[in-house]
Amino acid sequence: MHVRFKMFRGTFCTWTALFEDAAAFASRLPSEQLISISQSGDNNDGVVTVWYWSSESSEER
After folding, report:
1. Is 19 buried (19+), middle (13-18) or exposed (0-12) by CB count in 10 A?
2. pTM of the full predicted structure?
3. Which residues are CB-contacts of 50 (< 8 A; sequence separation ≥ 6)?
């Protein structure tokens, strides 16, 4: 298994839109694959990251 992530970022999006996009992606993952969801913000730049397990390595993508 490999740790993977999907990042949702936006300077022109609202925090609500970023979290909704991240939640929609996380909801499509089997629950045993989800590791966590993290967020960070600096000025008007927001980032939400979904961390998850995958059997596919980054080289296989």
Report:
1. middle
2. 0.84
3. 5, 6, 8, 22, 25, 26, 29, 34, 37
Return the higher-pLDDT residue of 56 and 48.
Answer: 48
At 15-46, the pLDDT tens digits run 899 999 999 999 999 999 999 999 998 887 88
Full residue range of the structural domain in which residue 56 is found: 2-60
Task: Please tell me the total count of domains within the chain.
Answer: 1
CATH number at residue 45: 3.30.1070
